[in-house]
Known about the structure:
The chain is mainly alpha-helical. Helices cover about 65% and strands about 5% of the residues. It has 38 helices and 8 strands. The strands form 2 sheets. Strands 2-3-4-1-5 form a 5-stranded parallel β-sheet, sandwiched between helices. It has a 3-stranded antiparallel β-sheet with strand order 6-8-7. The N and C termini lie far apart (about 85 Å). The relative contact order is 0.04.
Amino acid sequence: MRSTNSFAAAVHRLRRERGLSMTKVAEQTSFSVSYVSKLMHGHRPLLPEVVRELDAALAAGGELRRIADAQRVEGVDAVRPVQLPAAVADFTGREAVLRDLDGALAALRRREAPLTVVVEGSFWVGKTALVVHWATRVQSEFPGGCLFADLRGFALGRAVEPAAVLDGFLRALGAGETELTGTIEERSARYRSRLAERPALVILDNAADYEQVCPLLPGAGSAVVITSRDHQTALLARSGGLHVELPPLTGNEALQLLRRRVGDARVDVDLPAAETIVRRAGNLPMAILIAAEHALHHGDSLRNVAVQLRTERDRLDLFSSVDPAVNIHVVIDFSYLALAPQPARVFRLLGASPARSMSVEATAALTGLTPAIARTALEALRGAHLVEPVSAGRVRMNDLLRAYAYQRCSAEEPVTELDRCQKRLLGWYAATVLAASSALAPSWAGSELAPVVPGDVQPLAFGDGGYAAAMAWLDIEVPTVLRVARVGATGDLSWQLPAMLLPYFYLTKNWKVWLSAASEGLAAARRIGSRIGTARGLLSLGWVRHAAGHTADAIVLLASALHLEEELDDGLLEAWTAFALASAHASLDQFADAHRLYEHAERLFAEAELDLGLTVTRAMLAGILHRLGHQDRAASVAYGALSLAQTVGSRPVLSLAQHQLGLLLLQHGAHRLALTQLDAALAARRLSQESWGEAETLIARAEALQALGQPHGARESYCEAANILERLHDARAFGIHGKVANLDASLHAPHGHEVAS
């Protein structure tokens, strides 16, 4: 300890010269008094950061740094084990986690408290690689070295006894045979005593539970990092510390790892195949490395490897090695076979579900369990890292886990039971989608779309006033609904599910997804020969084509739908198609055709006693009547539509009636009355999350404000509208920016001059 004593002597000499106590010296650094005291007695390493701060606090001019450097050259005489395995050569990503670990270590130096880090995650996610990579960087900061043990907590029947690990640690720290006697509690106390003198970094890999690691936890000054597949509730509750939930690599990180192993050229020549490989490998580092090794060893192109990962069976075959450490069946068996029967069954059925993302309620429908029991099972799977969380409480499996679960399901579930589960899930989705759509547009579909639902299925109920909840549910679930329709549904459900989403698409104007849903629904209906499904598919496809600006194509599709519906004698469906076709003609200034079709739709809605349809039709008809020169009737129809809208109980319908009446009043020159209706429509459309409709009303509102001599207010409305249209990728945003530019020019023009708009 001669060098340490030299350093301490220099510190004491300098503080006395400056009239400072050790407490005052420590207070001028970012380290605790306790830490500095232990450093002075040789129980803490002379880390460069500590030495630098002490040198500055005592104005030593570099003297303390030179003494510390000399000590590092001389070395120390105590036993200092470093038991880390070799670090991974191609370690990739994880920068945020590494920063968190560095931050926790910095806090350890200041607090003088024990540091516990628990790293949890799925198989092959890279927990050990991360910890070894980090420990290799920081182990030199621990005078007691670095201890490492693989506890094999998930090797069934072969978990390592903590007593054996404890004895190994004691020997590595220089303990004699007499210190290896006594109870495990006594040996654990001796272990902590040794580490109190010379703190160490302890890595406990692959831990099963708190009982296994408890005797191996060090005391103050040391750090312990524990990895596990299971969520370590008891350990975290007792020791606190840093909890790291290690996810799979991001897409970019996964591609970077593949590049490092096979080379940039092979990835760049077929980037889509490389992306497919990492996705089907679940973005798991070990799986990516196995796939890369397969490509290198067999001389396969990445395209051929991607093809070999296409199906669940092929995927598992590629990752089935004679080496149990890299055999997908062996590594997942450890977690699956430890599950209780109920979570194990839920896990199997999730693998066979056509939905990739599952809520508690959907899981309950699939499995026939109550939502409470389903939630408990999902929590067990979540704790075992056999599912991963996604948005709004839903879970999903990566592709490898799905393949394994599907194989287990095929082997362990009777075919008849699996068929019942699939029918329950499909029925639940169909009934819930229809309920959500009806919350957006009450009674819009009539009874023709009502699905056949198994009696033991309880769909979500949105009820009166459930508009916001229905919209939120659909915002999350629409991609899953379309996937279920595409890969899971048979018969009429394959076109009914996309058709049920029409009110959602009409309100949100999500053109890309709407176009895909309409095309897939129409193709499914034609594939099974459903005429009613074909008619609904033509309606949806025609409507989205018109909304997206392809009106000539839309008119052909909608006219075909109308002709088919007349043959089918479906008055309500025919009414909606006539309404959509009228809107398409109106956008081309074909007002006579639009007038005829709106009146046809009005008659059919009246026969069906659907006030919602009557209201929207009359609101749109008023504008056409005005264009045709029937101003008095137009005003009467518009006010009648508003009156009826107030009884329908639908905010989007009310906002449409208010918007259309505002436009009519604007055209009549009643600018202030128009502004009142447009403001009401704007408030309603914001509440109902109609972004496209909100932009339409903002544009009309800007025109009213401009006419009322309020250019600043008009500019603000135009800017809001342009921002919304840009977000929706609507080309009209450019024209609105032009209006803003003209307003700006007018506002800054010299007095007496006007800029033409």
